[in-house]
Amino acid sequence: MSRLGKIARRTFLIGSAAVAGGVVFGVYAARTPHPNPLAETLADGEASFNPWIKIDGEKITLITPHSDVGQGVRHMQAMLIAEEMDLDPGQFTTDFGAPDPAYWNRAFSEEGAPFMSRDESRGAETARTVVGYAVKMFGIQATGGSTAVADSFDKLREAGAVARETLKLAASQRTGVPVAELTTASAAVRLPDGSEIAYTELAADAATLDPVTDVTLREPADWRLIGKPQQRLDIVGKSTGTATYGIDLKMDGMVHASVRFNPRQGGPLNGYDASAAEAMRGVQRILPVTNGVAVIADNTWRTFQALDAIDYDWGPAPYPPEQDAHWEVLANSFTDNRLDSEWRHEGDVPAALAGAETIAAEYRAPYVAHAPLEPLNALILVTENRVDIWAGHQIPRTVEDMVAGITGHDVKNVHFHNQYAGGSFGHRLEFENIRYAAEIGAQMVGTPVKLTFRREEDFAHDFPRQIAMARGAGVVTGGKIGTCDLSICSPSPIASQMPRANFPAPPGPDMQIVAGAWNMPYKIDNLRVRAYRAPELAPVSSWRSVGASHAGFFAESFVDELIHAAGQDPLEARLAMCDYDIARNVLEAVAEMSNWGTDPGENRGRGVAFVSSFGTPTAEVVEVTAGEDGIRIDKVFVAADVGTVVDPVNFENHVQGAVVWGLGHAMNCEITYSDGMAEQSNYDLHPAMRLYQCPEIAVRALENQSKIRGIGEPPVPPAASALANAIFAATGQRLREMPFNKFVDFV
Amino acid sequence: MQLTVNGTTHEVDVEDDMPLLWVLRDELGITGVKYGCGIAQCGACTVIVDGYAERSCQIAAADVDGPVTTIEGLGTPQTLHAVQEAWIEHQVAQCGYCQSGQIMNAAAFLAETPDPADDEIDDAMSGNLCRCGTYPRIRAAVKSAATKLKRA
Ligand code: FES
Ligand code: FES
């Protein structure tokens, strides 16, 4: 069966399960389990064929419900529709749309589990676990987990095809020309005589028709947009200062707000003295909020100044106040009663380790902040009957639920307006801006209030990436790895995050503790990967690539140590152990790109790492020079297999960005706690990577996978270990703890 | 006090020590200039004052001693500045939040250094953070912009 055939079949099966009664292929696209939310909003003569497309006499609007936090998904979603609908850029506008169950994320339940194709039964088991947590964690409509392309790829092309065919039917009925003789191009139906009828002219007719749902998607060879370099729809706005982010919104009568709440996250406010602040210029109100205080003023800076002038009596943190105690908790959690999962055990590891000469190592990954460049913010207007809230957020429907819970409005009367976000990296899965905006708005009925977090406040409440530790034990036999035993311990990021999103913590293991490690594509006689769940410490949250950001580092660093002990070449040895063709291909690609095997030169070294996360196998080679001023990263070579690349320019940009993210934080960043507070409050103490440290980054996309996958996160996990392995190759020094700048200098 | 921004003179009534950033954003409604850190660490707030790239979060309103140009005054979608053209050609932006500052910094830098060496670009642009990691494209776009400006 052709690949397209397979996609259609899978879609059909899922569609059948969701729609009662017998269905034929295609009906699914129009008859989703949820009614089309656009139907309620239609004016006379306006047509909507499904939740993503709306046409009237003047314009075509495409609804792109995935949140755009910089990954370009608004463009990607629009292009998928435009491809099948025969629209050219400039012939339509886009809109994030109102939150609605119709925009449920199919990829969370279909492809949420990075299970190995060779291990169907275990994969299925894991998939079930993940589906459970994903559904609970993200609700229905959500952007995250590198799923936006996978969720959209079939369904938005189908949506575009349905619109095209329905418009053709409308044209056929108007002209009497059979549908089979009609074609479409540039937002118009074309008749055999060469004349055209614009889609907008057909909207009123099409509105009276049942959508044509028996559609055929175009063959890849016929794609005009998919796979071709495109100018992103938001690129001009983002290069001219004309793109608007949540923080830029203005309304008549709007006032500014900012908050300060206990920097010991979750700790109470025992009391405060705001008398000095009350008298300050521009200050209008000082309001109590949960665990803190909000100031309303006529200028953002004046809110910051007033908050500085308040005396606060903060209560203690609900977790150990000092960082050392956090590490101690992890070190003491490698115990049987804290075993969370053991999804990988091949051979007999305990027997192989008993009495053997073992190689042992311990690794650490610190807390790290998301700190997207646009500080948290939200604009809210609460009136007696309704609430409107504007912000960039990745879980829109939960925003509405949460606001309703705070203001007391019926959720039907709460309207969330999603905005372009100045980055997220997981930060906009949290709700602090939403919660506090709602608390403030409820005390400012009738007045629009824009809440802006000061950068320091944003850092204090970042909900950083979880800390993690690993212990590895291995045995080398016959010039290769005979035994590899890896135990990874961290608090569960999912258990910490979900209650804040109003979801119960899911039962069962948290696959994030070992994500990217347990699924290593290596055949080793005795191989075991175990997860230990430490008790919750400081609250933590999904950080770009989530668990794989620590587990991938541990696994690929320890495997590298064992390979070295066996006297093997790091890349050749990985290829020799690799029993998954798709993974082998990406490893071979970086070997070729980096001229692996040639002499790197004096004081230079190469390191390789491979991690598969979010279903995208990704290999990286890092090249460093160890000079007098320290380590310089010269080049990085990346190969990743996503099945199909929708936009090669955006693909390259995001792989490069993810590598910069992975390297920069591994080199330079950690969040540590003292007196219950994060010690790093701004970019001076948490700089990640600046331009002068940025290497050349060469990127290659492979398209051998049968499924389409995301790229926002998968290049992050290999970066840290490829760098550590390269530094070892150049200097002989093993780096087992991030950030590396505690142990080596970087140029 | 009086402030000239993008060729228009405004009368503003603010504290002497209010940072220019907040005068621009909240008093004058010019929001192409961004708040990122408030402590001279990110460069998102970069504007050009009298020809020099300045961090507007660090200049007190009373200390502004020349005409201010923000990204809106550098070029518009219809009349792009060469640096903006280069930024669009290379599709530098991801989230885009840092890019106003990057572009203003690059424009002031190239006006001073029309023929920049690679390490000069690195030095000049390293005060501007990009959390999305668009640095490889920023480097390429600065070079293209330099070529465009020389041709112009
Ligand atoms: S906001 Fe001025 S440098 Fe960051
Ligand atoms: S593009 Fe997002 S911070 Fe630079």
What does this entry look like structurally?
The complex is a heterodimer of chains A (747) and B (152). By secondary structure, chain A is an alpha+beta fold. Chain A has four domains: 33-105 and 140-240, Aldehyde oxidase/xanthine dehydrogenase, molybdopterin binding domain (Aldehyde Oxidoreductase, domain 4, 2-Layer Sandwich), CATH 3.30.365.10; 252-317 and 372-460, Aldehyde oxidase/xanthine dehydrogenase, molybdopterin binding domain (Aldehyde Oxidoreductase, domain 4, 2-Layer Sandwich); 321-365 and 465-568, Aldehyde Oxidoreductase, domain 4 (2-Layer Sandwich), CATH 3.30.365; 569-747, Aldehyde Oxidoreductase, domain 4. Chain A has 21 helices and 27 strands. The two termini of chain A are 54 Å apart. With 152 residues, chain B is an alpha+beta fold. Chain B has two domains: 2-74, Ubiquitin-like (UB roll); 82-151, Orthogonal Bundle (DNA polymerase, domain 1), CATH 1.10.150. Chain B has a three-stranded antiparallel sheet. In chain B, α3 (82-89) packs across α6. Classes of the chains: A alpha+beta (747), B alpha+beta (152). At the A-B interface, α8, α10 and α20 of A face α1, α3, α4, α5 and α6 of B. Bound molecules: FE2/S2 (inorganic) cluster (FES) (2 copies). One FE2/S2 (inorganic) cluster (FES) sits between chains B (93-99, 130-132, 134) and A (70, 373, 423). One FE2/S2 (inorganic) cluster sits between chains B (93-99, 130-132, 134) and A (70, 373, 423).
